Amino acid sequence: MGDLMSAVRPAAQRAPASGIIAAVNHGRDKEGLIPLWAGEGDLPTPRFIADAATRALRDGETFYTYPRGLPALREALAGYYEALYGRPFDPDTFYMTGSGMQAIQLCVALTVGEDEEILVPTPTWPNVSGAGAVIGARPVPVPMDEADGRWVLTVEALERAVTPATRAIFLNSPANPTGWTADLATLERVLEFARRHGLWIIADEIYARFVWTGAPRAPSFLDIAAPDERILYVGTFSKNWAMTGWRMGWIHAPVALRQTLENLIQYSTSGVAQFLQRAGLAAVTEGDWFVRATIERARVGREVVSEALAGHSRVTYAPPDGAFYAFFKVAGLASSREAAFRLIDEALVGTAPGTAFGANGEGYVRVCFLRSRESLAEAMDRIVRFLNALD
Amino acid sequence: MGDLMSAVRPAAQRAPASGIIAAVNHGRDKEGLIPLWAGEGDLPTPRFIADAATRALRDGETFYTYPRGLPALREALAGYYEALYGRPFDPDTFYMTGSGMQAIQLCVALTVGEDEEILVPTPTWPNVSGAGAVIGARPVPVPMDEADGRWVLTVEALERAVTPATRAIFLNSPANPTGWTADLATLERVLEFARRHGLWIIADEIYARFVWTGAPRAPSFLDIAAPDERILYVGTFSKNWAMTGWRMGWIHAPVALRQTLENLIQYSTSGVAQFLQRAGLAAVTEGDWFVRATIERARVGREVVSEALAGHSRVTYAPPDGAFYAFFKVAGLASSREAAFRLIDEALVGTAPGTAFGANGEGYVRVCFLRSRESLAEAMDRIVRFLNALD
Lengths: 391, 391
Hints:
Chain A has about 400 residues and is of the alpha/beta class. Helices cover about 40% and strands about 15% of the residues of chain A.
């Protein structure tokens, strides 16, 4: 057995186990547990989206299809972006992928090689570093500044981390788990920094419409960058349309990369099932009412969580500017892991340990608040009772 | 634009465009064309399989799920293997993947690193070399011997190709496109060779039940290897159950690799949609009648093709021992590409150019014969008329 592992490619061995999955595995079978550990809501995919897949299955759309994705869906995505960003988009700049995760993985594979570096502001969703590690690259954590539970990424921190081996920055705004949402001035400074060092930006703006600052959407690199800039945008159906389990996402990238990206898709999953793409098409073209309802659900969830946590004597927490997570620190527990595991065992609430998002997440846990008011209120009651009972 | 491409990671640039896709793109919209270019049949997925996905969608199975795959499906796969190979299998040795292609990609990522080598007998399906190139590894073509249209891989050819940088062999038997099907003695020699050099074997036996030698299935490394051997088996739902468009496959690998493989899955697509896995479960547990019917369809197809090609004065062809492709050489045309493109334009039959499978495929084309007798007979008539009309 040891012999087998020693024969495994070192980079594949280095990929760390997900700390979120570790918590899920610990609590998966607990009766009555309220799961707030994953980045997904409590509603299944709406019927009109699922039915589009069912119809396509009935119509026999079960053969190989376009590696880059159905033309109709890529056109629909271009239309969706046009509505959101106020200018036309070329359908040939969209590439369907087998999840937002795969979009990230392909963008990393496109830009960062063995022993090269990608800057990853932390705390952040761990999978981008995992994808970098698997390819033999070095994910370089760039610690965000924290004060009273509010996290901020500064360009100064990026400047301190850049080296001649740096090839890319992963920039997630609105951010998971911190809720940090870059303003336009910050994005401009990041873009200037990237240009100056010749870096790619992998822009993860998947929570663009989940913003709590009063704006209709978060500021985006799409507002300031040229079309042939070194920026790759990753997208997903998961969050807007309650499609986490579908494994369907996309990349928006300059046309010049078309053949290269098509090759990367061809040699990984060779595209996305056509009948699933029909569901994606229904989501993008008929689903805006559902996205708006989902955003409203998250807005209420944020209030419920903030009411429970803000001002609690054991808790460091600031209401997030964007995304749908509360990331808070608990005083009096030895570690994030202890907090998450005891919350599972003693409060029957599933949270994700902060260390799953980077070393500087120690002491924190993350909860997802995209959930019904009732269920979330019950979960927060349980958490508060647990906190109150700590010595 | 040029500037953008120069910033792309060199390994990602090196991944070659698929020569099969090139032919498909040339002929996709030709009215009346009979497409024999892809490795798929002409029947959609059977209703009982599609309905299982539909039911799971209705039941709301649209959330995140187990990265390694549904326990019920992994148990069913273990049972399927037990029936086929005559001994028990551990469900924890099975990992669901987002296509057989992704199974291959993950196995390559597990075993071969930058500037390391993987031996790839050719002609073969090009995507394994593509997956190697993307990761920065060197796919080393190992030419098979050919005589009168019959291709054979010898261990001597592998011996000549091995270097200190070699980490793995990709072994596809029954083989696409050549139909070569290793006997047990050959597999034993390959295994001995791999052990002696400390190499991994990536065993692609997905056509195991499509054999035309009278045996119920092809000889397998599973017949001769120990459970903790350095062998990774890739699998797919595509061929047996007419599910090419579903992008669903699996890996069978030693338990010792469990966490490493789970990580590789987590950081690529994070698993397969649960409602799709329900369809896989229906296929494996209730679908053997369909597999048998598919094999029979291919058996008849092989006869139709052989009747048309064997003995034709312009054609070098030997009926294959396994899989469902005819790979034949046409005298009097300048290249595979000319043959494939002219067959599209002048005969309205889609074939894959032999060079898509390796340099030594030059002069050949591949047709898939998993198709109704009528449609296939018409396609072969068209091909023969085209050949007869050549000067």
